[in-house]
Amino acid sequence: MARWSPTVTFDGGDLDCGSGLLLLIRQHLDPLREGELLEIRSTEISVDEDLPAWCRMTRNELVSQEKKGRQSRFFVAKGSFVPPKTVPAPTESPVRTKAPLPRPVVAVAEPGPLPDPAPAPVIPRLAVTGIGSWPRPRWLLAAMHQHLQGQLTDDAFEETADDAVRLAVRAQVEAGVDVLTDGEQRRDNYASFVGAKLQNCQLVPIVDLLPYVDDPAAFRAELDALDVPAEQVRHPAVFGRLGRDRALAVHELRFVQTLSDRPTKVALPGPYLLTRTMWMECISDRAYADREALAVDLVAVLRQEIAALLAAGASLVQLDEPVLSEVVFGSPSRQRSFMCGAIGERKDAGAELGFAEELLRATTEGFPRERLALHVCRGNWSPDESVALRGDYGPLLPFLSRAPVGALLLEACTDRAGDVALLRAIPEDRRLGVGLVNQKLEVIEPFESVLPRARRAVEMFGSDRLILHPDCGFATFADNPIASARVAAGKLAVLARVAAALR
Q: What's the pTM value of the predicted model, to 2 decimals?
């Protein structure tokens, strides 16, 4: 008999942990306060062993476990259990608060005609821009976690995020940046935020996916070694056909436009990255026959969003495809943990690059090429250079040369990227962004050391083609920033000085 009354009771019936039970448990656990109890009932025998293991891995305390016939009862605290000050009298039938029902699979309407692009400010020669993310203030991170857990309303979170965006944009303007971003302040990370906005998808902590990988203990060890906050980083889980019934990032663009009339760039995860991230057997295969079928709907979603961004006046829409470098430089033993975004199926490098090229072409078809960009790097989850991938652009040159975008924004400052001279093979009708400062270094590179690198890039590619930026964002994962806001602003200010000198 349970000593404590649960806040919420949830009956999982005969579902096992690999058939969606964990996703439903997460929906009931998230809205609770730290230390509160969730009672989980189950008639599936495998849950008796699997659920305690999940509790240990996710660091949610299993307070007690009971079994009567086929019925098991688990009392799980969110985090560490905090006993109430007044001990309730034991009872066979504790008073229960009904939790919201799990989100049902909703019907997705076929997308209608796409809007035409609207005029936008022109990106100048030798333009300075950030790649996308900016360090979030502590108070925004607190609000973000409350929002993800259903403890803060959408309106309250957006009001808090607006304040953070104002700070990020002001820092960029004061640094002399030519093309602004909103710093991705509203996003939990550069890619998975999409999962919180799509129909029939939900975000779950990445540790909830441990039962679905081949070796959960090894996967957990990899995440810990890579300095990834696994309890806080969330991963999209697909449980029905994907659809877009609201904007993914248009609201981000429109708010920045109220703060400045400078060109604005919006970054979106690319179609290959999203497909690799969202395709997970035992979850997404209940909605899609294979990842190619999943990719069709992801391409449709991205096309709707890109069209809306261009119609709202975005000067540049950047598609992030960092997992391309994992395809050519990663080993099978590392593919699961690469930026928490390569858990899904991977075939040989040639097949994967061909698949990625097909998806990129389908996503960008019909849009003005000069307002599209592609960003590729080798990993940006940790300031430790030794854990990121290494290799020059040689294996990616055919893909990059054929990419149907007007600009390529590439990691180039770190020695892990090899000699940027290889990029001379890129057709001259593409603008080239080359990283000139390393966001992983806590020091602000002196102007005197950055200027020679920039001059070499001008000699190789010409000033009309060149865009200046850091190697990657300053806070790819909200809870794991690579640099402080002070250092980020200092690095951008150096780039602005270099651009002025080159002009």
A: 0.85
